[in-house]
Amino acid sequence: MDHGNKEIYAMIEEAQAKSFHICENCGAYGKRLMIAGFYTTRCNEHKRPSLSD
C-alpha cells in the first residue's frame, strides 16, 4: 500500500491481528485452522467443517 497515512495502516494491522481470533461464522473467540486447504478462524462450536465448507 503506497497511499494513506500511518493511522490508517495501524488500524488495518490491528484489524488483521484481531481477525486471527474471531470466528468467521459467529464472531465469537476462535482459533485459526486449516480446512480443505484454506485457513479459517473458527470457535469451538464451528470448528468442524459444515457441508457448505
Please characterize this protein's 3D structure.
The chain has 53 residues and is an alpha+beta fold. The chain has a two-stranded antiparallel sheet.
SS element count, helices: 1
Q: What's the N-to-C terminus distance?
A: 31 Å
Return the average pLDDT rounded to an integer.
87
Rg (C-alpha, Å): 14 Å
Strand order of the largest sheet: 1-2
CA-based shape: elongated
Oligomer: single chain
Structural class, by secondary structure, is alpha+beta
The main pleated sheet reads as:
2 strands, antiparallel
Strand content: 15-25%
* Percent of residues in helices: 25-40%
Question: Uncertain runs with pLDDT below 50, 5 residues or more?
Answer: none
Instruction: Give the H and E element order.
Output: HEE
- Find the count of extended strands (DSSP E, 2+ residues): 2
In short:
With 53 residues, the chain is an alpha+beta fold. The protein contains one helix and two strands; from the N terminus they run αββ.
Characteristic terms for this protein:
single chain; 53 residues; alpha+beta; two-stranded antiparallel ribbon; 19% strand; elongated
